[in-house]
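Two proteins, back to back. First:
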Amino acid sequence: MTGDVAASAAAAGMSVTAAYAKRRREPRFAREWRDAAAAAWERLEAAVLRQVLAEGERPGGAIEIATAMQLLARRPDMPPPPAAPPVRRKGRDVAGRELLRRLSAQARRGGAAEPA
């Protein structure tokens, strides 16, 4: 349970390619792989929390907090971030129509070319 596929494969006496192939072929092995990956993520989370709570965020520490947070954000079983609020199209459409109206008026007065 190192969280490192190459190290785990070597410890099991197989190549990385063989480990991935076994994961594809054997459902039990794939389930154990997922369990090991989940345990590695939990250890990373715990290590980050320990460091932050004990030492605060300091550059050059055992774990670079920014790097750890980027890794944690990629955790496969994390829920997706909240969706952005919907764009209010009505106001945008009104503004677009007003812009076109003004451009057309300027074109009629001899300004820039008529908008497409």
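And the second protein:
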Amino acid sequence: MLGCSGRRVYALLFALSAAICAFVYVVVNADNLVIFMKNQSTPYWNMQELRPAHLLMNVTVPVPTQSSIQNRSLADLKNEKNTSITEPTQESLKNAGTECKQVTKVVYIKTHKTASSTMASIIQRFGDSRNLSFAVPPRGHILSSRYGFKQNMLNSTKYPPLNGGTHYDILTNHVGYNRHEMEAVIPNATYITVLRHPVNQLVSAFTYFEWTKAVKAYRRGSADLFATFMERPTRFLTGKMKFWWQGHNGQLYDLGLKTQNKDTGKKLDDRVHKYIAVLDRELDLVLITEYFDESLLILKNQLCWSMDDIVYISKGLGTSHHIITQQTRDKLLKWNRGDFLLYQHFNRTLWEKIAEYGPTFEQDLKQLRGKLQETFKECINPLKMNTKDRRERKYVLKTTASKNCLKMSFDDIHYTNIIRKKQLKTNDEFSS
């Protein structure tokens, strides 16, 4: 294996040899030396690039929405600095045409402020259409926002698995990752989650959980509330603040690792790297918010679902418009370094899976985005938005929208209520 320096030297030599057919760009930033090529003729799955984690400076990447679908070509994606991908093996290409078996047992660890509600609704729609059993909370739509899953969080007496089954098929509601307890409820499941770049995720949490109120109370008239927050996050992240535990490595927290506010440096890195190795073994697929559509294609193939199964209508469009300076960004990445290491690792594994997908990836991505555009035109009223919740905006359906549009519009709150009532009614009929 080449070290980091070795890979950079290899990439430079490779770039120089290809100068006739490619433009070579070298971008130096605080985190990495990035070398990438702009070559429209290179197959997407055959790229040989160094792609460090997504680096943002003065903008944040929004949650994917139908209205913001840009039909980016894969040639454009090749110029985005994200991770490294490798050429697919002959074995992976040979297996690409083999038949697969549809996965119906899924545990989805729902992280906060990562487009996780959109992903949850995709899985809920899939399971509901196939009459699969869901492990749902007895009330509301959250099992726990703060604690790991326990079997006693379910009311398996009132809402047992459908048709007298002994185990559930799917879990999608908010609850911390606890593999042992989850395995007892849904054995032999495929484990999925979503991660978002820590800059985008924390800015979204800052707005959605209304931490702005505490900052305003501390420093009235502050021109940059988020920068004030990042001056010393521990000043604000106390038990009095809503969802305060999401302020420090919140994505790791959701996945079962609690980092202390003062835990930084090598001690933190060692803990995080060890835990990432555990997650890498235990999680079957980690989607990336910034590459949501690409992630869904990998999910479709890995779970043997159809293209229609992964079509979606985005839920909860954020209202945050913070401009993040380089200084504030650096503070954030140091403060949430655990989440950044987590994101870097699984962003890389996503692109490795894309590399193994094969030469039809570009065509399949175009097909998916075409279906998303068709869905938006068929279902969504482009002249209206639901703004009842000041923290986020939601799409409004056309009055002529089909039943399929209605199902795709359901968020996890609505779908959880539907599933809970369905399981209660079905099990009452089964036992009578």
